[in-house]
Amino acid sequence: MSERHQELAQEILEVAQQAGSERVTVSLASTTAFQVEVREGEVESLRESGSSGVHLTLSQGMRRSTLTSNDLRIDSIRPLIRQTLDALEFMGEDDCYVLPEVGLQGRAALDLQVRDPTFEQRAPAEKVQDALDLEARTLRLDERLRSEQAYYSDALSHVVYADSNGFLDGYRKTLFSTGVSLVVEDPGHAGENVGRKQTDGWYDSDRFHERLEDPDILARQASQRVLRKLGAVKPRSCEVPVVFSAEMARSFLGSLAGAMMGESVFRKQSFLAERLQTVIAHSSVSLRDDPLLPGKLGSRYYDSEGVQARPLPLIEQGRLEHFMLSTYSAKKLGMQTTGHSGGYSNLILEPGPYPEEELIASVPEGLYLTFMSGQGANIVTGDYSRGAQGLWIRNGKLEEAVSEFTIASTYLEMLRQISMIACEVDDRSSVLSPAFKIDRMSISGT
Amino acid sequence: MNTSSPYAPAQALAESAPKTPPSHWFETQLGVTPEKLRRVLEEALSRGGTYADLFFEYSTRQSVVLEDGIVKSSSVALIVGMGVRVLQGDQTGYAYSENLELSAMLHAARSASAIAAHGSVRSSEIAAFSQQVPPNYYPVQRTANDVVLKEKIRLLQGAEASALSHDERIIRVTVAVVDSLTHTMVATSEGRLLSDVRPMVRFNVHCMAQSGENIQAGTSGTGGRYGAELLEQPGVAERLGQEAAADAILLLQAVQAPSGTLPVILGPAQSGILLHEAVGHPLEADFNRKGSSAYSGRIGEKVASELCTIYDSGVILHDRGAINFDDEGIPSRENVLIENGVLRQYMHDYISSDYFGLEASGNGRRESYAHPPLPRMTTTFLAQGQSDPEEIFAAVKRGVYCEAFSGGQVDISNGDFVFVPTIAWLVEDGRKTVPLKNFTLIGNGPDAMSKVSLVGNDFALSDGIWTCGKDGQSVPVGVGLPTVLISEMTVGGM
To answer: Which chain B residue has its CA at the smallest distance from A410's CA?
Structure first.
């Protein structure tokens, strides 16, 4: 299967070269996916799909143009290539449009363990049963719980990259995910919030099926998370310490990574653009990108232009050490690519020594943050203002649920005030982060 | 495929529109005959099921970007595929194929039919196809793709020059034109057969302004289901360049927003985001079928101030949210969601209208052939009121005025929503005083809508730039609103 995709990528590359393109890159991906959603003991939806896509960049001199198609037949792609090449004469010249140096390209020499060899062994009926079982175990925990949905999904992807430097490689990866989301009536006080409900849930994702979390643990987490939101009140406006749960820490770091991408930096669309080699965070903060961790969701052998993957320190003890660069953004900045075309791989915040409970116990009055919403994380200006939900902390203990308020600060203030980092890491995505405490943020409520 | 150019569909449309009804496009261009449709539907229902439909898509998209004075790159994209859905009551089986050969479509139909194997077998007859030709809400003479690349580049350069000449503090300008043409066809086991050609254009400008260490971004854009005429409006490039530059320069003087509960004046057009989040999503019937929305079971109840009459309409000429029929083949229409504050109806797809025993409302939409339809908004707007905008300002001693937004989000179950203004002002003694840096507004849907205390007489639709995301599916939508006063909302500044 993989060989066939590589052959196809190579063939497309040659067609583009024969049509007159001086330099060519071809990214090809093909995915087989299955998803079942159940609700109240019945299958709500069953989806199966097989999809493919190819993306080409064609260059002539310092001009570049691109094409995308999900029709991989050579006869369909040929006219698109012609069209794309015809457009080249109208393009401006950008001397940063080059392919990576051949010496930087290659496949990292290790087994990343991104493919579960048992992928094809499980029958759809078994997968449906898993979702039904997870839902049933969850609903048994408390009679107030109703199911919004429980699901199971899996996917097998082939990714191939080829370019006119002579690079040609591909590999397969699998992904499994399962979870449950719940809804509970939450009428609040008489006359207020008519019809109000609360929803929450829990899930797990992994490249290997056998490593998915035990359904009883998923069920307990989901139940506990939705029930603790009942009776949520709007907090008063104040300035307090905020403990970011591991999931919220992940959201914060994922957006921060955007400010460290070369594409944002050379465009001056990053508040970090002029801060390389300066202290931007508390000394407890060390952040790195590591593509070579076996089994993790962001792991990769090379980036999206075939540059061999390697770990990169981003922040070391509070100091900004590197940006994440592609060949293009590196050239714009007069630097060398770090193998980050296509974004970060596994973004890792170095865990601290404390269990999460100790972060909470250290707060006399403050917020334990469990949800954020909206587009108010601005990496251009560094301003941070988000809708929020969570639990109020009083005398080091989690007390009532709070909602319908905002938290605000700036990225730099927040980074400088990350004074405690927990030790438990949430590794269900390509941002691997523990919870952390920010000493002070503005809360806008009543 | 027997086309020699990816743009053949556009040419075929322009040339053949008067002669051939669009309904035959998939047959003549891609060989998808009514006989094949019938075969695939039969296969879909071969293991039982109460209903099946097929959705076909053939979409071409072009974009060209100018950045820092360089025409950066152009791109073309081709998306082709078909989705098969089988329903067993409210249970869905879904599969798709990117290949329109009969054998591949039959394979997808067999996969989708697995849903019925889980339920009781109840085979449905496939009704004879009756071709429907609904009114066209986005007729175009020439598509945006007929505007030659050289001409598009001239527009990009015009916008850039206009932004740069606005103020010397403008340091970077990025301009893009993206246009697409999507052929769709729906065939259902109930015999509906409809075809459509959906044009879409967007023209966007992004500017950065710098003063010392202070860097701010401004944006502007226009778009909708238009053809070449949108790009050929006199002065459009210059206007968009000016607008984006003016926003970026304005923000250089912006100060931190206040924190706490304040009156909020929503400016016309873009503030319709509020309706989309606070009312629109919670009234999508899938949430109500599952009983997970704050508005579940509340039809006929008062859920907003009596000043509020809120519509969702898919029939606004050339609007970004317009659709001739939805992605289940139901003709589009205008639906009253809330009338003088009273909840009238939800927005339905096939499954929810069947569940509630109601007529479908034309809101069954999907991102592409790869996605099953969901109840989605089209263009959501609040009807014109009586108040003069000046009168609305005069009613505010200290508050916030919001003019442009980057977007919003809602938690359906508890009704909490946020929306994020990009251009906003502090209002003091009835007058805009200083611009505010970006911040978040948060409210609760039913609560905020009951606090609408004045509605202006200056209704406007937003300028064709919004995309809505739900369950991992994006669809283009529109919003609109006159100036509105909300007596209090939480403003998330510092």
So the answer is: B494
